[in-house]
Design brief:
The protein is rod-shaped and about 115 Å long. Strands 1-2 form a two-stranded antiparallel ribbon. It has nine helices and two strands, in the order ααααββααααα. β1 (105-107) and β2 (110-112) form a beta hairpin. By secondary structure, it is mainly alpha-helical. The chain has one domain (30-254). Helices cover 81% and strands 2% of the residues. The longest helix has 58 residues, at 177-234.
Length: 269
Amino acid sequence: MHLLHVTPVLANALSFAFEKATDEGKMTIGTLVCVSLFSWTVIISKILQLFKARRATKKFFAAQRATRDPLDLYKRELEFPGSPAYEVYFAGAEELTYHLKNNPIRVKDVTKISSESIDTIKVVLERTVSTQALALEKGMIVLSTAVAGGPFIGLLGTVWGVMETFSGVARAHTASLTAMAPGVAGALISTVVGLFVAIPAMFAYNFMVTSIRALTQELDNFTSEYATQISHTFADNRALADEIADSIRLLQQDSKRTAIESRPVEALA
């Protein structure tokens, strides 16, 4: 009984073509292998980063939307590592805490902040969103380079190899298929390797761009939502007349308190 023997045609073709490739073709293949290594490193790291960001952001949104206090999670010192939305929240909460401490406005025994402070907090939120978006997009240039440049680098190696093959045929004064086939095969392997580099990078790039766009949109929506929540809770929305009346009332109270404190001890007795 004879065992069925399966010949790895593709492996044999690649190994034969690589053996017949010129030195320039092998250099091209080496360059493509380096690009592929960088590409796969980015693919694996970005997939892990996006998966962690998605999972941590989901947990953060569940915790943040369960409370109406903009500073609740900040006061409880809850952390959600890897979540871009949490980084935006933390930056905004930290800036809000600073203004409540250093630029407070007392309105009926409630601490508020001015509209200028609210604008500053919005600037901090927007800056943090931009920083997180850049962090999500970091490394994507490697994938776009692999997608766009891989086939062209392979094509360069192929054209160079074909040119070398025809030059050799011309010098040998023979045009038989047997003489041309090895050189053409060695030239075509560069294009094959270039496609092997570009195709996985293309699928990964499209998937990651879509995921990053979704996360960035969530950040923009959360920023608007959180800024509105801060404004409703801490913004001093009194009318100008009410502000003037409250200021006068506070000045009168301070004047009475100062007058009482400055009376001689004998007069108080």
